Amino acid sequence: MLSVAQALERVLAGVPVLGTESVPLAEALGRVLAAPVVAAREIPPWDNSSMDGYAVRAVDTTTASAAHPVVLPVAGEVAAGGVAGRALGPGQAFRILTGAPLPAGSDSVVPQEEVRRDGARISLERPVEPRAYVRARGEDIRSGDRLLAPGAVLRPAALGVLASLGHARVDVYRRPVVAVLSTGDELVEPQALLGPGQIPDSNSYTLCALVMEAGAVPLRLGIAGDRREEIVERLREGLHADVIVSSAGVSVGDRDFVREAVESLGARLDFWKVNMRPGKPITFGRIGERLFFGLPGNPVSSMVTFELFVRPVLRRLGGYRTVSRPRIRARALEPIDNPGSRPGYLRVRLERSDGEVGARSTGSQGSGILRSMLLADGLAVLPGDTRIPKGDEVEVILLMTDSGLTQDD
Ligand code: AMP
Ligand code: MG
Prior knowledge:
The structure is a single chain. With 409 residues, the protein is of the alpha+beta class. It has 7 helices and 27 strands. It has helices at residues 4-12, 156-164, 203-213, 228-237, 258-264, 299-317, 371-374; strands at 20-24, 37-38, 48-49, 53-56, 70-78, 93-96, 108-111, 115-118, 121-124, 134-135, 146-148, 169-173, 177-183, 187-188, 199-200, 217-224, 243-247, 268-271, 283-287, 290-295, 327-332, 336-338, 344-353, 356-361, 378-382, 386-388, 393-398. The strands form 8 sheets. A 6-stranded mixed sheet has the order 7-4-6-5-9-8, with no helix packed on it. Adenosine monophosphate binds at residues 182, 184, 186-187, 199, 201-204, 247-249, 251, 253, 296-299.
């Protein structure tokens, strides 16, 4: 049976980065940059004042050429959004407000708190440092600076920089579209009254959410009953997606028709089992250019196999630099057990304790116990038949949580 690492290698082999598209800046948060950002202008574009005060020539205020207090006539005025109508002459001051361009002839600003204003004149007690309170042209960004490379995830500051550079749109990688199908005669929509033997389809909600969290776009195909033709019919609706993900119906039960269904659509299957727990029966293949994942039906198994195999593929398609979640070493705060022979991905909660990260099981680890995922910050990776004693270290894959530990790109 394939190991998780071997299966992941097969899944990622030959997966390209999708094409690019241009999006308005206001819609670009979290998108992946597709072209380098190289500054084509200086920021700030001109020397300007960082204070409300007076623009002066520093040389007019130094003791060498003047006795203190120095008295200067206020001979002009400039506010943010304007420009001084003329140059400042020797021995003059101009009223200046924060963000206004420094008038020609001036080189420094005295904050208004540091002068006494008397009608049309100001007096200064101390000499002014040359360039004081001046934000120099280009001090933030120089023309030609390489600011961001392709693969960067656009965060709020990046959008501000792009706007400052005069871009209203930005080139980003297209987000993969992922068709999500639930299969099973027992499944109904969440709002339905449950008949005998029925359960709500929870997988399509966890999986569509995981798709979005991976920076991709879900296409909900709904529920197909356990009939080959019905599965085929639904899957056809997903054939224009980049990736198709189904859950359930991939074991060896009498009603497990997913494999037959995708094969009848021309799928070339690559593998259908991976040595892991939860989630052994996972099918992977290609239908034409589309990637197909037949995930197991149990709610935890479908989420964990998505994390390990589908998410990396979606990140690769979407142009992210990192495709896998970060891994850390955590201290077991209680014994963590993987009793089965297969490598285990156990759900743990992480806590900071004594400057370290500690891991604690989220409780019952059955593959149908969705609560174990609900509480999880990470997946502890354990070889088969292993018990990590309290106090030992364990490797943990960080999941997306608000624990503050999971920044991964
Ligand atoms: P299967 O792989 O079809 O044998 O399903 C394994 C288990 O997962 C069964 O108990 C199913 O009822 C359950 N299951 C399958 N699909 C879903 C789903 N979409 N939502 C919740 N549970 C499911
Ligand atoms: Mg089933």
